[in-house]
Structure prediction request, 110 residues.
Amino acid sequence: MMLDLSTIIDQAMKSYGESPLTINIDCNTYLLEKIEELENRVKTLAQTIGPRQIPDEYAELEIVEFIRQRKSMGKSTIDMLDFMQALNLPSDQIDRIMEKLKKKGVKEYE
Prediction:
């Protein structure tokens, strides 16, 4: 007789006096708490570090390369959040550089 994995787990849990439902709820609660903890740590870290400060020439090179990468992945548009998250540059610097690139004919920006 072949048992499926779910049945085996249920039998094992019952032998320890725990219901599978209790274990799953405990596990889900634990995972949700850990996710929330990690989200809070990331927010704190982001507030502590802030955007990078690099010269416009270097930022422009990074932006152009980022656009190329996204284009090669089939993306036709990129919004401000994409740039900010990927490059960690200040939004005003990204805007300034994108205005310059738009004059050169770059249209991958929303």
Notes: Helices lie at 5-15, 20-49, 56-72, 80-87, 91-103.
